[in-house]
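Q&A log
Question type: sequence-to-structure
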Amino acid sequence: MQTVISVTNLSKTYASGLRALKNINLDIRRGEIFALLGPNGAGKTTLIGIICGIVNPSEGRIRVDGHDIVADYRTARSMIGLVPQELTTDAFETVWNTVSFSRGLFGKPADPAHIEKVLRDLSLWARKDSKVMTLSGGMKRRLLIAKALSHEPRILFLDEPTAGVDVELRQDMWKLVRSLQASGVTIILTTHYIDEAEEMAERIGVINKGEIILVEDKAELMRKLGRKQLTLHLEHALERIPPALSAYHLELANHGSELIYTYDERGDRTGMTALLQDLTETGIRFKDLHTTQSSLEDIFVTLVSDRK
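Response status: OK
Response body:
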């Protein structure tokens, strides 16, 4: 798939001496939904700010659809829509005017039909003549998305877009995101709701302490790093695990009434089959079993804690 954003050897050191980014290399594919995950202070917002031309890099190069973000700033920036974390809007302006003004900032001619479509898609049409100061927090968040979409960008950055938004509106936003992707827009999002990244993204990047520690297709990441657990509910509780089963690294739980077997996706189910056979040979019987699989959140926590 064609690369639409290319980040090469990017570093950022602030005047205070804080090195926020360290030699970042990252390619974003055209038309994908890419989730950038990381703890607070990891460098997510700094990285987005540099790609969007808001923050100056200390080293490195960024190209947006072949255009250098520094040498060809106007062209590169016109392709990008940014929904920032902060709710920064003109409190005394109307919804319609503030979205229309954002379009004009990029030199786009007036297009009332497009502005109307954006506002309707974001359930803001009924408030088009309302002043921003009268909107709820969730509506202001949607207004930021409307402003970012006003100039019809081909790349959309969503920096914590659903913070403070109720569940119903979150679902509406993600429907809009999917429709934008279907129209060819590339989506890059950061979120603290890792379940959203798991549901929406095709690729996952993890950043920690200013460094990209992993970039992987979501399905492949889940396959490689996802763990499964088989829990066996025993007919009779055990005081200890028989030595004959030591190779399986089993755990006793729930006062000895459950046996837990943990395995990864790479090992398929052959270990499970052998375990069940060995349980029969040792005379251990179970009345029920179930499996669980680690989520993206489990994987993220493991990755970040391993780097501390």
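Response note: The longest strand covers residues 3-13.
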